[in-house]
Amino acid sequence: MEKVTVIKVGGAVVEDDSSLQTFLAQFAAVEGHKVLVHGGGRSATAMAARLGVETKMLDGRRITDEAMLEVVTMVYGGLVNKNIVARMQAIGVNAIGLTGADLDCIRSDKRPSVPIDYGYAGDVRKVNGAALHTLLEAGFVPVMAPLTHNGKGQLLNTNADTIAAEVAKGLVPYYDVTLTFCFEKKGVLSNPADEDSVIPRINRTQYNALVADGTLSGGMLPKFHNAFAALDAGVTSVVITSAVNLNSGTTINND
Amino acid sequence: MEKVTVIKVGGAVVEDDSSLQTFLAQFAAVEGHKVLVHGGGRSATAMAARLGVETKMLDGRRITDEAMLEVVTMVYGGLVNKNIVARMQAIGVNAIGLTGADLDCIRSDKRPSVPIDYGYAGDVRKVNGAALHTLLEAGFVPVMAPLTHNGKGQLLNTNADTIAAEVAKGLVPYYDVTLTFCFEKKGVLSNPADEDSVIPRINRTQYNALVADGTLSGGMLPKFHNAFAALDAGVTSVVITSAVNLNSGTTINND
Predict the structure, then answer these.
(1) SS3 for B247?
(2) CA A208 to CA A198: how far, in whole Å?
C-alpha cells in the first residue's frame, strides 16, 4: 500500500514568512503523497481586530458569530491558504488549496448551541476520502484550511487538529497513513527542562507507564487520546514533532 | 470532442445572495463540463473601506498596492470563492475553488510599472490546461477567483474577463470550448432602447456590418475584439448573455 503523510501545522508557523519558508523546505522534502492542514488563528484575530470584530475564546476554542465567520473564511480560506499555495508552487510542490466545501471534502454539523454556543463551529461528520484520493493520485498536494461546510451552503469553522485527524482516518482505505502534528517542541520530552530529551517511540504500554510515573501529564494527555483514537481507526502512526525538523519527533503507534 | 463551457460572471451577481441563487440554478443546469470564473470587485472595495484601505481605479482597473492585494486575496480567494463553492455543493454541483496559484493553473507576469503602475496586477502568461483537464475529467467543476501567481510565490490580481478568455483558450486542445460572458443585458441588442431586441447570432461579416451602420459602438467593441481573439485561438463560440438566463443571449462565432 502506498503511503500518505498528513501534516498539521499551526498558525504561528505559517503566518510568519521566515518560519513558513523553513517549514515548506521540510514539507517539500517529505516523500510520497502528502496533505497539509494549516491553522491561522493569530491572523484571524488580528484581522478581526482591524475590522472591529471582537475575538471571543472559550477553552481555547473560538466563538464564531456571523462577523467572525466572515473573517475566518477570508483569512483561513483566502489569505493564509493562498499564500501557502503560492509559496509551495514556487518550490515545486504542486499544491491545491481546499476547504471542506471544495469537492465536499469535509461535511460537518453545526455544533449544538447548548451547553455552550460556539456559533458557526462545525463538528466533522464525514470526510470524502475518495475525492482526496483522486487529487493525490493525480500528483496534487492538498493544502487544507480549517473550514468545513454542512452540505446546505453554510461554511463552518472547524479546529485544524480535528481536520488533520479526520482526514488521516478518511484516507485509511486508500493508503498507509502517517499523521504528523507539528508543535513548538522537538517531540514528547522525557524531561521538560531538557529540549533534547525527545522520546523517539511510544506505544500504548509505554504510554501507560509514562502516565503512571508522571512523565506525561496535563496538555499532553488529550494529544495522546487523539493519537490513539486515530490509531484505532487504522492510521499507522502518529508523529509529534517540530515544524523545523519533520524527521525528528516522537512516533506513537500500536507496535 | 467533448464540450466545456467557461462562464464568467461579475461581482454584482455573485455578491448578492438572491441573484447568486438564481444564477447558480442556471449554472447547475448547464450540461457537460463547465468552469466558472467570478469577479468580486464590489466586495473588495467594501472590505477595503472597512479596513481603511483606499480603493484607486484607473480606466476601470484596480490599482493593487500591498494592502489591496491582501484585501483581494481574502475577498476573491476566500469570502466570495468559498461562498460560491459551498452554495454549489448544496445544489449538487461538485465545485472546487481555485486561484491561478492552485495547481499552477494560471501563471502571470507582474504588469510593468510604466506608463502606469497598477501594483500587484498580473498579465496572464500561461494557463495550465492539463491541470484543468484533469479536474474536469474527474467530474469536478472549477470555480476560479480572479487571482494568479508569478511562479515565485507572489500572488497577483488579474481581471476576471481576461482569466475567462485565457482559460477558454487553454482548454482548446482538450475540448470543444464555449466561452460565455454574463452581463446586465439579455445579449447584444439591435436597439438599445428595446431590452428584447437581442441579436441571436453574429459572425465576423455581420459584425463589420453592424459596426458600419452604427448598431455596435462604444463599450461593445472591446468585448467583440476579445471574443474574436478567443475564436482565433480555437474557441468554438463566444456567448454574451444575462446571468439570469444562460440559454438566451448572442452567440458570436466564425460561421
Answers:
(1) strand
(2) 17
Cβ distance of B50 and A47 shorter than 8 Å: no
Residue A236: its pLDDT value, please? 97
> DSSP per residue over B37-100, as a string?
EE--HHHHHHHHHHTTPPP-EETTEE-B-HHHHHHHHHIIIIIIHHHHHHHHHHTT--EEEE-T
Residue with cell 454556543: A117
The string of pLDDT tens digits covering residues A213-241 is 999 988 888 889 889 999 999 999 999 99
Among A91-95, B53-57, B72-76, B247-251, the range scoring the smallest mean pLDDT is B247-251
Q: Are strands B176-183 and B237-242 parallel, antiparallel or unpaired?
A: parallel
- Please, is A211 exposed, middle or buried when counting C-beta atoms within 10 Å of its C-beta (0-12, 13-18, 19+)? middle
Q: What is the C-alpha to C-alpha distance for residues B251 and B255, in angstroms, rounded to an integer?
A: 11
Q: What Å distances lie between residue B213 and A194, B207, B208, B217, B224, CA to CA?
A: 85, 10, 9, 10, 16
Taking the Cβ of residue A147 and every Cβ of chain B, the question of whether any pair is shorter than 8 Å is answered with yes
What per-residue confidence (pLDDT) applies to A226? Answer: 87
Q: For testing the chain B interface, which of A38, A73, A84 should be mutated: the one with the most B CBs within 10 Å?
A: A73
Residue A113 CA, chain-centre distance (Å), reads: 24
Fold of A10-175: Carbamate kinase (3.40.1160)
Q: Count how many pairs of residues, chain A against chain B, have C-beta atoms within 8 Å.
A: 121
**Euclidean distance between CA atoms B151 and B148, whole angstroms:** 9
CATH topology of domain B7-176: Carbamate kinase (3.40.1160)
Complex ipTM value: 0.95
- The alpha-carbon gap from A60 to the nearest alpha carbon of chain B, in Å, equals 24
Which pLDDT tens digit goes with each residue over B213-244?
999 988 888 889 889 999 999 999 999 999 98
User: CA-CA distance, B140 to B133, in Å (whole number)?
Assistant: 10
For A115-165, the pLDDT digits (tens) are 999 999 999 999 999 999 999 999 999 999 999 999 999 999 999 999 999
Cell numbers placing A109: 454539523
Domain with CATH 3.40.1160.10 in chain A: 10-175
Evaluated on CA atoms B224, B230, B231, B236, the torsion sign reads negative
